[in-house]
Amino acid sequence: MNRKVERAVQEIVGRISRWSEVDTITIVESGDDVYDPYFFLSFDVYCTGPIPDETQRREVFADTVAFEALQSNRKDRFLLRDIPFRLEYKDVKRYNEIISAAKANEVVHRDSGTYMFYRLKESRILYQKSDWIDEVRKDLDALNDQFWEGLRAALQARMEHFLGDLHAAVVRQDSLFFLVSAAGFIRSLCSVLFAINHQFEPSARGLHEQVSRLRTLPDPFFGRLESFLRSESAAMTADRKKEIAELMAKSVLAL
Fold first, then answer.
1. Each residue's pLDDT tens digit, 147-156
2. Which tens digit of pLDDT belongs to each residue from 173-186?
3. Is residue 121 located within the same domain as residue 225?
């Protein structure tokens, strides 16, 4: 992170850490190149009570550009000196309940997977009032095999659901539904692989890079994945992609 970006980060931290309800602030970084279209600064602001309302936050960030408050007042995004920021305000109590459920081997919602845990564990801590996030990270490290097996089963069911949709789209020659189903299938397939490896899954932007680092993968995986991602052509039809998807699914289920 270059000096300009780091100064901006510390400036924002200095503003929001003054709010008494803020316990912890973390950041998930998306690289160092501010000209990369994937680049933005993503803050998780963990709070023990209500945050200032939108009007008050607009005053706090009065020197920013393109300020927007989103999703029932739980997200802000803006530009500060041309640097894109995204802030999400999260309830500590709710996360404590989610962590407790995971420790009790209750599977997280298969639609969201473990991305929330990834952000808790892999983000960089910018500010902490208590040891809350340190204790949370210890709990996440201690999740047992029963949790991961239950998670894998739930994610595999989702993967098989998308595979069925993929097959139906090919039969009906529905290009749009095929595209939607293909995206869901690949995301679910990768989620299963992260669960098999007992790792939390990253955002979609980092999926390809991080799945390649997993220790346990079916063979051959990447050749089939690249073939599936290839644009349709005379040699790579939707029907052929369906066949590749079935091979990938079978290889993952066999692990």
1. 999 999 999 9
2. 999 999 999 999 99
3. no
Question: Do 224 and 132 share a structural domain?
Answer: no
Q: Stretch 153-164: mean pLDDT, rounded? A: 95
**In this structure, are 113 and 153 located in the same domain?**
no
Nearest to 196 by CA among 251, 125, 133: 251
Cβ neighbours around 222 below 10 Å, total: 13
* CA 105/CA 103 separation, integer angstroms: 5
The residue behind tokens 């999703």 is: 71
CA atoms within 13 A on the CB side of 65: 6
What confidence tens digit (pLDDT) does each residue in 107-146 have?
665 566 799 999 999 999 999 999 999 999 999 999 999 9
Average predicted confidence (pLDDT) for the chain = 91
Which domain-ending residue is among 141, 157, 183? 141
User: What is the residue whose two structure tokens read 């239950």?
Assistant: 150
Q: How many domains does the chain have?
A: 2
Nearest to 24 by CA among 13, 34, 12, 8: 13
**How far does the chain reach from its first CA to its final CA, in angstroms?**
39
Separation CA 214–CA 101 (nearest Å): 26
* Structural domain boundaries enclosing 182: 145-253
